[in-house]
Structure formats: C-alpha cells, structure tokens
Amino acid sequence: MKKIMLSLAALAMGSLLTAQTTTEPTTGSLAVTSAVTSQYMFRGARLGGTSFQPSIEYGRGSLVAGLWTNFPLQDKVVGQSAPELDFYGSYSLEVAKDMTVVPGVTFYTYPNAVKLNGFYKGTFEPNIAFNYTIGGLKLTPKLYYDLVVKGPTAELTAAFSVPLAAIASELGFTATIGTFKLTDYAPNNTPNIKNWGDYYLLGVAMPFQVSKTSKITVGWSYSAGSNNFLKQGSLGKTVNTAAIGRGFATVGYTITY
Length: 257
What we know:
The protein is mainly beta. It has one domain: monomeric porin ompg (Porin, Beta Barrel), CATH 2.40.160.40. It contains 1 helix and 17 strands. The strands form 2 sheets. It has a 15-stranded antiparallel β-sheet that branches. Strands 2-3 form a two-stranded antiparallel sheet. Strand 12 and strand 13 (169-182) form a beta hairpin. The longest helix has 17 residues, at 2-18. It is globular, with a radius of gyration of 19 Å. 16% of the residues are buried.
C-alpha cells in the first residue's frame, strides 16, 4: 500500500507540473440540494436507516467546495453524532486529453459524537483522484488517507449514462469497488483498534428537469461490505456487524443559482 501511495503521489506531482492552463470563468454557481435516503451506507457499512441529507456546493471553474450533511430520521446508531457535517473541497487540473487529476480534502465532523462510545468528533481525509474518459465511460481511481484514524482507502469508480431523449432525461449508472485499512479506528483505546475491509456499490439515477435552474433526481443503489474485521492488539479479529449489504432509494431536489 505504501508503494501504491508513493507511486500515485509521484504521478500526481508530475501531472501537476504538466497541467494545461485554462481560462477560469469570472462567476461561479451555487447548488443547494435537499435529499432523503432510505439507508445511510458508507464504504460498505450501514451507519443508519432513513436519513435527511441536505447539501450545498459552490463551483467556479475547476474549484469545488461544499458541505454535505446527514440527519438520521430512523435507526440512529447509539452514541453517534446527529448531525454529521462534512466539509469538502477539490480542484480539477487537466493533464491530457480526456484526463484530469483532482486533489481534494474532506473534513468529517460529528459534533455530538460520544468519545466514550468509540466515536471521533472529527476526522481529516486528503485525497487524490484521476478521471479518465474513454468513449462514454468515465473511470476514476481514487486514493484517500485519513490522518485521524490513520489509514488509506483505495477506490475505483466506473460511470456512464444512457440518454432518454423521449423524456429529456438519462439513466446514470455507477459502479464502485474499494478497500481500506485503518490503524486507529476508535479513540481512547490502548492498544489501538484496527479496522479493515472491502466494499462495493452499484447504482442508477435519473434526473428530471423541473425548471431551468432546478431538478429532481431519483436513484436506487446497492452497497455491501465484505472481509470487514476489527482487531485490538493481540486479541483475535472480530467481524464488523455494520458491514452488510443493503439496497436503498434516494430522492433529491436541487436548485442552482
């Protein structure tokens, strides 16, 4: 994993040095989304049931910054924060035809988390992604490293769309596979608790334009975790019972200013 991270870092540095300069627009856009999902799944682990997930995102040229949130409405995990507030940002650089490199960062915050129950109040995760489009297929390998739980996550996403001209919409298909290894999964534990595992997600979404600046998006996804274990010191590993398979529906309404 260290060799992979060093290779990606070297590739990113080379990409940044050769990145093509483009003229940035003088104005940006702001997208506000209200969404509800029937299950809150994150990297193959179920973190809750029905949830309200509003977000706000500002984009200007290659720069994107936003806030994504989660408010549990059902099956809230005991001791976990409600809400979850995730601040993120990224910058896209074109390095070749149909290829971009995107460094970014996410600050996950859980203001009401209970540390004694094994939950952090915040974690910080830099990341870097490479987007490559071939035909209508977009491939995105991405590497994350969380500086608080101390571990990498490697992920590969494939996405493509099927136009639905008759109804002025499209079907957007997404498939993601990933793996992670964390060495300090929960606070206030000596020795540290390790957590590692694999996951995947399959999803489809369809947007419906309501007006020039607003749309409704409905989607369905299935996510599952596997080989997900917890281990503390010399004790034997135990299965993470949150790593299960679940299908879930999502409905969102977005207004762009």
